[in-house]
Specification:
Elements (H helix, E strand, L loop, with lengths): L6 H19 L19 H4 L1 E7 L5 E4 L2 E4 L13 E7 L3 E5 L4 E6 L4 H14 L26 H9 L8
Antiparallel strand pairs: 1-4, 2-3, 4-5, 5-6
Length: about 170
């Protein structure tokens, strides 16, 4: 309505509009004290504003982050961190940080490959927790030689009904 067609003209219109708008609609605050508090010195803001994933360190002292496997350094006295619960943090600056609740175990740049980053982001939804659920485990086929089907069992009856070969003899 003011006829501004470029950025410079729009900024001039805005400079005239804002003071008039504030005179008309501004209301003084009921409490003039600022509502914000200063950040505590011991709080690491980067550790708060990041994506966090819970993991358990594998027996080979590694942590899986989607398609990326992170090798953790040996702890004090060459002790492994195997079995320890850790938090994997994807920081806003692109670093992967492994935190055990008391100290940082590893800091590493995140993978530059967007497919690996997407896999890291989707790992939480895929795994849900650190242990796979029963439904996500691969179940061998009924004809697989490792399956032991006992005559008289439901699986044996199903094999016979479907006309599958007897896994005990194949």
């Amino acid at each position: 309505m003011a006829g501004a067609v470029d950025l410079l003209t729009a900024n001039r219109v805005l400079a005239r509009f804002v003071p008039r708008f504030n005179r008309r609609f501004a209301v003084p605050a009921a409490n003039p004290e600022p509502a914000w508090r200063s950040l505590p010195a011991e709080l690491d803001l980067e550790a708060v504003c990041c994506l966090k994933y819970r993991r358990v360190v594998a027996h080979d002292n590694t942590v899986r982050a989607g398609a990326t496997i992170l090798q953790l350094p040996a702890g004090t006295g060459s002790r492994s961190s195997a079995g320890r619960r850790v938090e994997l943090q994807l920081r806003l600056d692109g670093r992967l940080v492994v935190w055990d609740g008391q100290r940082t175990l590893l800091v590493r740049p995140a993978p530059a490959d967007p497919v690996q980053l997407r896999a890291l982001h989707n790992a939480r939804a895929e795994l849900g927790s650190t242990a796979p659920s029963i439904g996500s485990l691969a179940v061998p086929a009924v004809t697989h030689p490792w399956r032991r089907v006992k005559p008289g069992s439901k699986l044996y009856a199903r094999q016979q009904q479907e006309g599958l070969p007897d896994s005990r003899t194949s």
